[in-house]
Design goal:
Elements (H helix, E strand, L loop, with lengths): L22 H9 L20 H8 L16 E3 L5 E3 L5 E3 L11 E3 L2 H7 L5 E2 L8 H5 L1 H9 L2 E2 L15 E3 L5 E3 L2 H10 L4 H19 L8 H9 L8 H22 L1 H11 L3 H8 L10 H7 L27 E9 L2 E7 L11 E6 L5 H12 L2 H6 L18 E7 L6 E6 L2 E4 L8 E4 L35 H4 L7 H14 L13 E4 L2 E5 L4 E3 L5 H17 L12 E4 L8 H14 L4 E6 L13 E6 L6 E5 L8 H6 L11 H15 L5 H17 L5 H17 L5 H6 L1 H16 L1
Parallel strand pairs: 11-20, 11-21, 15-19, 19-20
Antiparallel strand pairs: 1-4, 2-3, 5-6, 7-8, 9-10, 9-12, 12-13, 13-14, 16-17, 17-18, 21-22
Helix pairs in contact: 7-9, 8-10, 9-10, 9-11, 16-17, 16-18, 20-21, 20-24, 22-24
GO molecular function, one term: ATP hydrolysis activity
Protein name: AAA+ ATPase domain-containing protein
Organism: Ulvibacterium marinum
Length: 745
């Protein structure tokens, strides 16, 4: 990470005061803050697209954080998150919504740094409150106000952060911290992820060879020009380049000046700006050539005044950011009905939300089994031993040669995968503690009935419902309505989850139309008076019930479910839902839990409407060996439900009613016969025509089927008599094949 001077590029016209997107809405929000305690600000980066060219110019098409090339379209990062923020212990605050469309808060970032940075933004001392409207409308005044806040994450565009060297490098390409802030920045952004380390290793080797090759024994002016080239602002990993070249220059300045005085002036004009800055490293023992990785940690004792100790991980509970892991692939061997299947998890997130996997397939093919296996892999040994999974032999594929099941999960940028093994005598993992907070929702969603009490701690694993249908989800309402257990701030965060799930428009959220709590009940008012969650219809109760259960489970680590980075697994997600909700439920979950990985199974094509590239996987049985096959098959945008059902996702022949479908099937079969019954064919065609005539709205496939029959007959039979058709089996097959092909196209 290097310092970038923001004043090098003027504020884009679209972000000037009076021109900003949503400026009136933000001003109103600043003036009426109490109204929006339960309304989350929704950042719309679409309106920031015109600033991308300016950001690429400012940051030289490099990530502001890791200095790698930025190639993604979605590359705008809000240094201070606009929708919600989380500190190091998962405590939530309202986002810096008032900076959502402000130039000095926009950074160019690679997709991976954005994912790791997420909404984590701890500060040293108090967090800034929203400014008054006068400050908001004055760019310089607003910038000064924001600069009064001290952040734990190093700001690439704050010159004060770079007055002292924050980072060093070792020979292996690792970036090393020289301060508490640098350590947190490296840890949060994963600046030593394998790809970056490899790129730096290559750069170190290249620069070492280039600098060593300068011997000052002949005309090597072109080599000095090469040195200048690698100090240009558009070079990737420029911080590393400066580090190595500054060290080399300080050791050879006199030789350069003696041999190439003219070039040395050019070199000095560039390097004089960075030598004083890098002198702190180059004149110490911490250089590429001499220091070891542990040297920096040994010589620094980091302390930062004003940081809440709870922010610095003093609890035995894992810090939330330790769960910032992204699934790369899952491999399952000999678990229950599965012989060997592998699932590659999509990494590029198109639009809102993290990774998702949508499994489809017939009953009994193993969808629920895949969900169970992934859930087990997220548990550490401690949690696995607490699960009562019955006879372990039942968890191993019956005809497996080796009486052992294995579940392997690989996380992105982690070298050692998680391995769970099951033998007839037990289950074990190569991880002792919880890998990633996981919530499992089974296909049967039982909520407590009147008088039934279910404790939240009855299932500490949060995944038991994936294995047993008798699991009753605890009623979260009493906890949520408890003034002592849940603060007003925490309740408002939960209210945002409820409001998002119920799709309540923001303009309906007023002082008297909010989520409220009283006497153990939580009520929602959407304009018709307060209604308790308990009195809602079963469909609403089911969705809100398990959404609140997910939220409550994630609240163990994050105050706001919106900031949580867990794994949500739901079997048969469409159960109990109206078609309108089925279409929206996946998008809603992404909106409410945008940083969670969501893995679901479904039989319902409506639930696949929100699928994105790489997310839909079809499970089916191989007819030759009866093994389970798992194939990734994207769903084209705009495809009709009918084509989705008869396509390669559900393999239905027709989508008409059962009687009409049978009539179509019988007609096709009759055409295939060696001696077709001509009268029967004529009778069935007449019946099909009557069905089309009687259908006022039209049944597309039936209509198409009948039209194809007439079209094919007119083309193939205009010179062939009916007698010829009866005697020509090949022509009949050709006719039937053409009909079927066109019906399925």
């Amino acid at each position: 990470m290097i310092y970038i001077d923001r004043d090098g590029v003027p504020v884009p016209k679209i972000l000037l005061d009076g021109e900003k997107p949503y400026e009136e809405e933000i001003l109103f929000r600043l003036e009426q803050q109490t109204k929006f305690k339960q309304a989350r600000f929704k950042q719309d980066d679409y309106y920031l697209d015109p600033t991308l060219d300016d950001l690429h110019t400012l940051f030289h098409s490099k990530c502001a954080y890791c200095e790698s090339n930025v190639v993604e379209n979605d590359s705008i990062d809000h240094f201070r998150p606009s929708e919600s923020v989380s500190d190091r212990k998962g405590r939530a605050d309202e986002g810096y919504y008032w900076l959502g469309y402000t130039w000095f808060n926009l950074y160019l970032s690679c997709h991976e740094c954005q994912r790791y940075k997420s909404n984590y933004f701890p500060v040293i001392g108090p967090r800034l409150s929203p400014p008054d409207t006068e400050t908001y409308l004055d760019y310089d005044q607003l910038r000064n106000y924001v600069n009064s806040e001290d952040t734990l994450l190093i700001d690439p565009c704050d010159v004060r952060e770079h007055e002292e060297v924050q980072f060093g490098y070792d020979r292996e390409g690792h970036i090393l911290p020289r301060s508490e802030k640098a350590e947190y920045t490296i840890e949060l952004l994963q600046l030593n992820r394998p790809q970056l380390v490899e790129e730096r290793q290559e750069r170190i080797q290249f620069l070492s060879e280039m600098l060593t090759d300068i011997t000052f024994s002949s005309d090597e002016s072109h080599k000095i020009k090469d040195v200048l080239f690698h100090l240009q602002d558009d070079q990737t990993h420029l911080g590393l380049n400066r580090h190595m070249i500054a060290e080399w220059y300080l050791a050879n300045e006199k030789l350069v000046d003696n041999e190439y005085p003219d070039l040395n002036e050019d070199l000095k004009s560039v390097i004089s700006k960075i030598v004083p800055y890098w002198l702190q490293i180059a004149q110490s023992s911490n250089t590429i050539s001499s220091f070891e990785p542990e040297d920096i940690k040994a010589e620094n004792n980091y302390t930062i005044k004003g940081v809440d100790s709870a922010n610095l991980g003093d609890s035995q509970q894992p810090a939330p950011q330790e769960f910032s892991k992204f699934l790369e692939w899952v491999e399952i061997i000999n678990y229950k009905c599965l012989g060997h299947v592998k699932l590659d998890i999509p990494q590029s997130s198109e639009g809102r939300g993290e990774q998702s996997i949508l499994l489809i397939g017939e009953n009994g093919v193993g969808k629920s089994t895949v969900l169970q296996a992934i859930a087990l892999a997220m548990m550490g040994n401690e949690q696995l031993q607490e699960l009562n999974l019955g006879d372990y032999t039942d968890l191993i594929k019956r005809n497996a040669k080796e009486k052992r099941a294995r579940i392997t999960v690989k996380f992105l940028n982690e070298s050692d995968p998680i391995v769970v093994e099951i033998t007839p005598t037990g289950i074990s993992s190569n991880r002792e503690q919880l890998v990633k907070p996981t919530v499992g929702i089974g296909s049967v969603r039982r909520l407590p009935e009147d008088g039934e009490t279910v404790g939240f701690e009855d299932d500490p694993s949060r995944i038991l419902a994936l294995f047993r249908h008798d699991v009753v989800f605890p009623d979260v309402e009493p906890w949520l309505s408890n003034l002592k257990a849940v603060t007003a701030h925490q309740f408002n965060e939960a209210a945002k989850t409820i409001i998002d799930m119920l799709m309540i428009p923001e303009d309906l959220i007023t002082e008297d139309r909010m989520v409220n709590r009283k006497s153990g009940n939580v009520t929602v008012n959407v304009g018709n008076g307060p209604e308790s969650i308990k009195s809602m219809c079963d469909g609403y109760r089911s969705v809100i019930g398990y959404a609140l259960y997910i939220m409550r489970s994630l609240n163990l680590y994050w105050e706001s479910a919106y900031n949580a980075e867990g794994l949500i697994i739901i079997d048969e997600i469409g159960n109990h839902l109206h078609p309108t909700w089925k279409i929206k439920v996946v998008s809603l979950l992404r909106q409410v839990f945008p940083r969670c990985t969501i893995i679901i199974s479904t039989h319902d094509p409506l639930c696949l409407r929100a699928s994105r590239k790489g997310e839909v996987w079809v499970m089916n049985l191989d007819e030759t060996d009866r093994s389970v096959k798992l194939q990734q098959k994207d769903i084209p945008m705009g495809i009709s439900l009918e084509n989705l059902l008869i396509g390669e996702w559900f393999y239905m022949n027709y989508t008409t009613d059962e009687q009409t479908s049978k009539l179509i099937e019988d007609h096709s079969n009759e055409l295939f016969k060696e001696n077709p019954n001509k009268e029967r064919i004529k009778e069935m065609e007449a019946q099909l025509e009557r069905t089309v005539m009687q259908t006022s709205s039209g049944i597309s496939k039936l209509d198409t089927y009948f039209e194809v029959i007439r079209e094919v007959k007119s083309e193939e039979m205009k010179e062939i008599s009916k007698t010829d058709l009866a005697n020509d089996a090949e022509l009949r097959k050709k006719l039937a094949a053409r009909i079927r092909d066109q019906i399925k196209s």
